[in-house]
Design a protein that fits this description.
The chain is an alpha/beta fold and 381 residues long. The protein folds into 2 domains: 4-107 and 243-312, FAD/NAD(P)-binding domain, CATH 3.50.50; 112-241, FAD/NAD(P)-binding domain (3-Layer(bba) Sandwich), CATH 3.50.50. The protein has 10 helices and 25 strands. The strands form 8 sheets. The protein has a 5-stranded parallel beta sheet with strand order 5-2-1-9-21. A 5-stranded parallel beta sheet has the order 11-18-12-13-14, covered by helices on one side. Strands 6-7-8 form a 3-stranded antiparallel beta sheet. It is globular and about 65 Å long.
């Protein structure tokens, strides 16, 4: 029986489904991808793109081509409401689309209200294409004048962003002052050895780290800290943590504590078995999962099997997340810091290992000739 599968978002967890989308089509099913644009940027290589290690085209997937080349439909837009009872999605364009099965991989964002940000001089580090705007801004301004750059957030993203801002400034030959507001503690969820390695890496390059303080408000070139001090800046980037879209709560779909769609071991909504999801936008019922790409990548084959099973009325496969995972920080100086449990190692080899893993992932899912001729070529890489 012909059914309609809708993929909402072309992120990491949907890559296998999109790559093997013709499997669904050959079985007589219709498949549509709803995405705000034809490209999906890989967050794991975002800091490297900011620092100039990679060009924009090296870190993105042409999801429109992936889908259309395999017989699917690409719908440009964003889902703003889910009517789970009628199995309909409403888009920001006003269009409504019906589904038999739908899967969400819409990622997460960095809420600027967490730091009281106002104005266009504060950018969240997600979506990743914001980092392209930072690249361009630095290229325009640094050769002519110095810049004061502020990074808010002392987690892995904040550390990588600070290190790669330094790298970009080194490439451009401009004078830059970089301050990292780390909150309570730099890399607070990591081991003391990882924190010390990261702190030493950044401070030896002149990056100022402020711990024990938070940004209370930011805008118009000035950040107010909760200790009463103020910091001037030319451009600020917020990496204070991520939050799933509010679409699930607003659509009365059960959510977890973080607002992500609450899913069972089959990556399936606990209330609506025809709804699935993966990556940052879900909340895994069996145990909290960190918002890291490794889980989205490992959810890839599970979602492929379970979406096919849902369409074909077949048994489903459980997702069993690993308890520990490896994370390699790109420090922006050609070195990486590898962290896994109590293990903490650093060196150029660590970054080369991360680079190999990332490039292998990109090669697996990128389509040939992914640069659309209608897109302006970016020459600042």
């Amino acid at each position: 029986m012909k059914k309609h599968l809708i993929l909402v978002g072309g992120g990491h967890a949907h890559m296998t489904v999109m790559q093997r989308l013709d499997d669904f089509v050959r079985r007589g099913h219709d498949v549509s991808l709803v995405s705000p644009g034809p490209y999906h940027y890989y967050s794991g290589m975002g800091p490297g793109m900011l620092g100039g290690t990679y060009g924009p085209r090296q870190v993105r997937f042409h999801v429109r081509r992936m889908v259309e080349d395999r017989g699917g439909e690409f719908i440009e837009g964003e889902v703003v409401q889910i009517d789970a009872e009628k199995r309909k999605l409403r888009l920001d364009t006003g269009q409504q689309v019906s589904y038999n099965v739908a899967s969400f991989n819409t990622g997460s964002g960095v809420p600027l209200e967490w730091i009281g940000a106002v104005g266009g001089d504060v950018l969240p580090v997600k979506p990743i294409h914001n980092l392209l705007a930072v690249r361009r801004e630095m290229k325009q301004r640094l050769p002519r004048q110095g810049m004061k750059l502020l990074v808010v957030g002392g987690g892995a993203a904040g550390v990588e962003i600070a290190g790669n801002l330094w790298r970009r400034a080194e490439q451009l030959g401009g004078r830059v002052e970089i301050t990292l507001i780390a909150g309570t503690r730099l890399l607070g969820r990591f081991s003391p050895k990882v924190r010390n390695l990261a702190r030493e890496s950044l401070t030896k390059r002149g990056i100022l780290i402020r711990e024990g303080v938070h940004v209370r408000s930011a805008g118009e070139g000035r950040a107010v800290l909760d200790d009463g001090n103020e910091l001037p800046y030319d451009l600020a980037l917020s990496a204070t943590g991520v939050q799933p879209s509010g679409i699930f709560r607003a659509s009365q779909i059960p959510v977890g504590p973080d607002g992500g769609m609450l899913v069972n071991a089959y990556l399936q909504s606990v209330a609506y078995p025809e709804l699935f999801g993966g990556g940052d936008c879900i909340s895994f019922q069996e145990q909290p999962l960190d918002k890291v790409g490794v889980y989205a990548v490992r959810e890839n084959p599970i979602l492929y099997r379970n979406l096919m099973a849902a369409l074909e009325d077949q048994p489903q496969t459980r997702f069993s997340p690993q308890k520990k995972y490896m994370l390699i920080l790109n420090m922006g100086d050609g070195r990486g810091i590898l962290a896994k449990g109590a293990v903490a190692l650093q060196g150029r080899w660590a970054f080369r290992f991360k680079d190999w893993i990332d490039r292998r992932f990109m090669k697996r899912f990128q389509v040939s000739g992914e640069l659309d001729s209608s897109e302006p070529v970016i020459t600042d890489a």
